[in-house]
Amino acid sequence: MERRSRAILQRADDGGAWLMVKLDHMPNLDHIEKVAGSKEQFYVDWELADTRRVRKKQRRLFFALLNDIVDHFVVPQDFLKDMFYLQYQFYTGKEISLADHTRSSVTDANVLIGLVVDFMFEWHVPFAKGYELLPKEEQYFIYQCCRHRVCLICGLSADIHHTDTIGMGIDRNKVDHTQHRVLPLCRTHHQNYHQLGPEKFSELYHVPANGIKLDAETLKKINVKGNYES
Asked: Is 85 exposed, middle or buried (0-12, 13-18, 19+ CB in 10 A)?
């Protein structure tokens, strides 16, 4: 069972910080000494707990995406729900629920939705009913569109568009593209971007027009040639 403890963060005189944790129960000191070699000083792994509860919009998005998969593969929605809940449990080691009064957090729901989005990209399921609800403001969705070369706006085949200027006459094969922000756009929406300008484009399609940065490994996988030696 997951336990949560209250913590206080304070600056230390040497420029570091102290993390003081109040536990809701006394730990097994004999076990700590056996594992760490000391009862007084030892190392711990910690994770910041998200206290925000699952939002209604996340619940609507999850089931809208499930309906897209249902329409594409003609499978029962309950089967898909149980499949992704089980996949989440296998991936995180904990259970999840999107029901009212759930203890699952916004972060938990984002991980679950991410698993569904990954599945849809991997199996080429069109985003239909759930498309307008997609978290387009989130970097992860843009990253997946880049990774699968899918237009952020319409879902068609996309090119990787640089949102910041590289410069005329520069050989793009010699550019370190990890230092530039990109968006995945089809040719039509790429033209729209230049015709409207970043601000109007963002306002019209409700997407961030400044794009994201990709690491060298991802850029190589999607065949964006450049100089990544550094």
From this structure: middle
